[in-house]
Design a protein that fits this description.
This protein has 481 residues and is α+β, with helices and mostly antiparallel strands. It has eleven helices and 22 strands. The protein has a five-stranded antiparallel beta sheet, with no helix packed on it. The chain has a four-stranded antiparallel beta sheet with strand order 8-9-4-13, with helices on one face. Strands 5, 6, 7 and 10 form a four-stranded antiparallel beta sheet that branches. Helix 2 packs antiparallel against helix 10 and helix 5 runs antiparallel to helix 6. It is flat. The chain starts with 18 loop residues before the first helix and ends with a helix.
């Protein structure tokens, strides 16, 4: 209850009695069931929060177990280059372990051209007409251009008000596979063009249709043409676009890019420099990744086990019980986890128990990780994979450890699982508690209203009796006088 309202404050004026205090105390006695209901609701909500945390921790175990029971982890590999300046590993996944000798004869380059004539600055006018950009390759010699099949030339309209800066912006905005920039030195400003991608097939040709009628001279828009086949070279080629050339284990390979992703299965190499001595690429299974995954599983498991233990234990020293102390659902989960922890598996002939891998059960229900044992275990990835990811196809004794924990997490987190049904049951109790609170509050409100009316009537009658008594006393005193 919220206390006395304004009307309560006048109680007792007529009678001289402390009716407000009496009313407060009586309402407080009537409100004891409501106080208990609110305490129960708080305890139920705390349990819901605890089960929410347990669900989150079980999800973490499920994620870690799924990684160990999946296929991608066990196929991962690492690749190391003995000279990363020649070639470095960008990525390595599912690569076949082995050693590869890599030499580089040529790096892939972008075509680059620059205007031969200079301008006073970026705001200098460039002429009027149309520039046409083609992407393709140059047949050298005699510099015949071969457009890319299926690629449409891009026309760039240039007006009389366009400057070197706006022409640059129009080329960049056309998305034609060519990047434009302005280079300024002591002789003035010039337009520089560079193909967006490396390789012979990403070369470009730039033709001009000049409104002055002459499309090949060194005046107007034709100053930006580069078309050796058409007899126009007002733009000077600084770098020709070429493909990368390398050898891998003596086999010649070419690529439009310096990233080689199909030469060694599962490995992407990035060529760095020309080198006949080359580099050696060593590919091996990613044992460190497997060790990390096992350690992550142990960490997730320990988080769950420690939380369940803290929530269900009774501290004799402080005489404080955990939120879920005595909760059958929580203690049942602890029992399942410990039973599974101590069970053996026939999935692997080398690792029948988790302790064989380096994961030993502790007295508090958590796992300790023996790094030396784990390092030895990852030396036998074939059997270790069976131990964690083995599928018994219906025979639980042949399921791997990670598969078992993943299945347990799926069961308890499912729509009919322990955590889901327990949480739903608590939520239903909270909802019923709320209804009970409303009902008790309504009874308290009616009780208070009834007492207030009774005390108000009694106060009024007492006031009248007091007034009558005073009048009689006055009359008697007057008669005596």
């Amino acid at each position: 209850f919220s206390g006395l309202d304004k009307a309560d404050a006048v109680l007792g004026i007529g009678s001289g009695l402390d009716l407000n205090t009496m009313l407060t105390q009586l309402v407080a006695l009537e409100s004891r069931p409501l106080t208990q209901l609110r305490s129960d609701a708080s305890a139920l909500q705390t349990k819901v929060s605890s089960y929410g945390q347990i669900s989150s921790l079980f999800s973490a175990v499920q994620t870690a177990a799924n990684k160990l029971s999946g296929t991608s982890l066990w196929g991962q590999s690492t690749a190391v280059s003995t000279d990363t300046s020649v070639a470095q590993v960008v990525s390595a996944s599912n690569a076949v372990p082995g050693s590869y000798a890599v030499t580089v004869q040529q790096l892939a380059t972008n075509q680059s051209v620059v205007s031969t004539g200079s301008f006073s600055g970026a705001d200098a006018l460039v002429g009027e007409g149309t520039l046409t950009l083609d992407i393709g390759s140059w047949d050298r010699p005699p510099m015949n251009f071969l457009p890319q099949v299926g690629r449409t030339p891009v026309d760039i309209t240039v007006t009389a008000s366009d400057t070197l800066a706006t022409l640059r912006d129009k080329i960049n905005g056309a998305g034609a596979g060519v990047n434009a920039s302005i280079v300024t030195d002591s002789s003035g400003s010039r337009l520089a063009l560079r193909s967006s991608a490396t390789g012979e097939e990403n070369s470009f040709r730039l033709r001009a249709t000049d409104t002055d009628g002459n499309h090949t001279d060194a005046a107007g828009l034709s100053r930006f043409a580069f078309d050796p086949q058409g007899g126009t070279t007002q733009m000077e080629q600084k770098v020709a676009a070429v493909n990368a050339q390398a050898t891998v284990n003596g086999i010649p390979v070419t690529s439009a890019s310096n990233d080689l992703s199909t030469v060694i299965e599962g490995v992407t190499l990035r060529l760095g420099k020309v080198s006949e001595t080359g580099t050696t690429l060593n590919v091996s299974a990613d044992t460190e990744g497997v060790k990390t995954a096992v350690q992550d599983f142990a960490k997730a498991y320990n988080g769950l086990a420690s939380y369940l233990s803290a929530q269900t234990k009774y501290d004799a020293a402080s005489k404080v019980a955990g939120t879920l102390q005595g909760d059958s659902a929580a203690t049942g989960l602890i029992s399942q986890l410990r039973t599974m922890l101590g069970s053996s598996s026939g999935a692997s002939s080398a690792f029948s128990r988790l302790s064989d891998i380096g994961l030993a059960a502790q007295r508090d229900g958590t796992l300790s990780v023996d790094s030396a044992k784990l390092t030895t275990a990852v030396g036998n990835l074939t059997e270790l994979r069976k131990a964690f990811a083995g599928n018994g196809n219906g025979d639980a004794s042949l399921d791997g450890f990670a598969r078992r924990y993943a299945s347990l997490a799926t069961r308890v987190l499912g729509s009919d699982g322990t955590l889901t049904t327990r949480t739903e049951g608590l939520q239903n109790r909270i909802s019923k508690n709320s209804d009970d609170q409303n009902r008790v509050q309504d009874r308290i409100d009616r009780f208070k209203a009834r007492l207030t009316a009774q005390y108000t009537a009694m106060d009024s009658n007492q006031s009248k009796l007091t007034a009558l008594s005073n009048y009689v006393t006055q009359q008697m005193n007057a008669l005596t006088a």
